[in-house]
Design brief:
homotrimer; 219 residues; mainly alpha; 9 helices; 0% strand
Chain lengths: 219, 219, 219
């Protein structure tokens, strides 16, 4: 079954835009560290498509990040763009944060749905959706020898993607059981993406953080 | 052929206990660095099941760490447990060291046997057994931006697992050649695990270390 | 179709020599950090064969780095050799640089050709060729908690491998279309390897570097 979110040109366009934005955010990390253009391209590509490669390796299907021409082009163009436009992108803090949250939501839904339609169980699909959404940034930070942003950033980043992946499993199950048609699936997918974006942005705006280990003191 | 060590409820229970203990040890690293609950869950899961995921990706079979319900539950519960009980676990240094050594032995034997029964050669199975035993801690340390414990720790950690994996290849070959029955295989597996635990603990207790590069001086 | 470069004993010998040299260079990093013999073996193996493992996982074929007996032996022997001969190898700076450049070229061509003959597209094969050439050093540096050499080193390292992989795609296409016979393919492969070695060494000798992000100043 085709992914609902890849069934028309509009959504494909949104997906490539998400890849492009992820690439910008990723490449910026390499620009700030003053690495060369090759390193910028690698980090842009890895941030944008590394999560999908991780998912596809675990699913044992050919990785989109090295086989889909337009995804690769979107990622590499984003690397070149950030090498030129880094000053402008640096100033667009809130736009980038929103676009990054959008990519987080989109990748979570696409990753989960892809796994479900390839026959994975709900639990496995949640793992694979989260791998798609979080994997790219995670591998980039391991490469650049930083503690990954999803671990350092106390604001919600992984949590919205987890919630979204879990909800998407139910949407996919409904669709596979024939309870939803493709339009309804797309509508619900968009609601989930909006929820992820909303949770992520609320967390940053209102400084909502996730608790750590229970604080206790030696007695 | 079914893995001898997964053929009865008792051994399955021991395996989940090993997953749980690995998760406790792994999550503790994230607690000490004061990361949030999500990071604690990720490191617990990665330490407990990351080695098996590595092995299964190399074997091209669906990764246990994202498909086996009880393994995932054991790993996530260990993450929650360590977020609450970190002070207690910190005090149980020797118990944890023993349980960690037990998990090392168990994962080495299970990983090697799984690879052998899926048709890998002896050499490949040793690699995959060691990947199962050592991979989780290794990936966790790469994620948390530490030099992996198996590289920093001068005490024997990798060496006992290597010895155990090599011995287990002979046990599996004996079983596949019909020279051993399932009870004998289990008995020998337990001897190997005991040997790994013994080597690991002796190394820590008696401070036995593995040599480095030959020390030589410029003349 | 058999890889042209693996079709006769001479080239197989060169390939194992490349594995051995990569292992020496990789193990040396662990010797300098004063890790133990096991860590030296792991880094030698990972540097020499990790790139191929990455390629084979992405191609979904059994990884050469854990299945090919002679490759594994060459990698492990290189680890033992460097543990003994590190002082000598340290002095052979230029020889090692040349041999490392040779390995870079050889791995790029072998990786690209393997992917092409297994049916990957040209773009995918370039990615896989570069993964073969660069992946080992990259994973080693992530393991040893360094920023990867290919990102730190301002001299050309990735660029020659990219150029070589792209050229090799055309050679493979020519061979598959019947325009080239095996001797011509080998000859062109050797030209590509010479070009990669030449670019790499020129970059170090004449201090040619790759530009970073466009330098611009806030106005």
């Amino acid at each position: 079954m085709q992914l609902a979110l890849e069934s028309n040109m509009f959504f494909m366009g949104v997906e490539y835009l998400a890849v492009f934005c992820c690439g910008l955010v990723g490449g910026l990390a390499a620009v700030h560290k003053e690495y060369d253009l090759f390193a910028i391209l690698v980090t842009a590509w890895l941030t944008a498509l590394g999560g999908g490669v991780l998912r596809d390796v675990l699913l044992e299907v050919p990785p989109v990040g090295i086989t889909d021409r337009w995804s690769v082009i979107a990622a590499l163009v984003s690397g070149i763009a950030i090498a030129v436009l880094h000053l402008e992108v640096d100033k667009l803090k809130w736009s980038m944060l929103t676009l990054d949250a959008l990519a987080l939501g989109l990748f979570a839904v696409i990753g989960t749905s892809k796994a479900m339609y390839l026959g994975s169980s709900g639990m496995t699909s949640v793992f694979l959706g989260m791998a798609t959404a979080l994997g790219g940034g995670l591998v980039r930070d391991m490469l650049l020898n930083d503690v990954p942003m999803i671990i350092r950033d106390k604001h919600w980043y992984a949590v919205p993607s987890a919630v979204g992946c879990i909800l998407d499993v139910f949407v996919c199950k409904g669709r596979m059981a024939g309870l939803l048609n493709v339009e309804q699936e797309i509508a619900l997918d968009l609601v989930i993406i909006a929820l992820i974006v909303g949770m992520r942005l609320s967390s940053v705006i209102f400084n909502i953080t996730f608790p750590g280990a229970m604080e206790r003191h030696n007695v």
